[in-house]
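Dear support,

I submitted the protein below through the web form. The confirmation email said the job was done, but the results page showed an empty box. After a refresh the structure appeared. I'm attaching both so you can tell me whether what I see now is the final result or a partial one.
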Amino acid sequence: MIGVFDSGIGGLTVVRCIMDQLPDEAIVYLGDTARTPYGNKSPDTIVKYSLNNVRFLLEQGADLIVIACNTASSHAYDAISSRYALPVFEVIGPGAQLAVAQSRKKRIGVIGTRATIASGAYARHIKALCPRASVFAVPSPLLVPLVEEGWQGKPETAMIVRKYLRPLKNRQIDALILGCTHYPVLRQVIQRKMGANVVLIDSAEAVAAKVARHLRGVGKNFLPPGKTGESQCRIFVTDIADQFQQTARRILKRRLTIEHADIRF
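What the results page shows now:
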């Protein structure tokens, strides 16, 4: 069973991509909605929350962990992978690889939470893959609560997106990493503001493909994409809110039952 966690609802974009890649795989998801956002927390707190989340997922039967949170990926991956003897996947490395592959000019922008941008994780990964690449990062913290509130279509959201993206447009980037799993929910408005010549990099797609390759490598059998499998997915949150369920249904395009996770904080 694949265990996936995020600070809130954004990680469901990763779940959706995993369902597309692995249509008969069992998934358990935890959204830490009681403590979201992670982007304004200290690194020590992010590690503590992340270890709480992994322990809960293991209790549900997960034997593979996907950190569907850029902030947790940048600060907690080492702590998780060193503590638990099971496969652990994060979203930053796959996203950086995809950006380098798809950027023609190697001028790459990154938007993310304050903690993700401050960590410099994307820049390090990109530079390791392509030393000549230029990386321009902009913290965009207000986008997370806008997604959590379901404000995707509000004019205020478009205005805030435009303000965050203006410095990146001035840098003439040709690839933009959506460095938070909440951000693909705003993909349409971000693409409009950046223009058709800028490719948007969704790390959810990249990490889902990496998980699929891993399972193939260990001989796991599953239906190929496009077949008629139906992923079994349980969704837990640490604080249940009506808006979460509405947005989750839009992301996953299916009826859902949201369960409460009793996590020892």
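Response: this is the final, complete result; the empty box was a page-load delay. Residues 222-228 have pLDDT under 50 and may be disordered.
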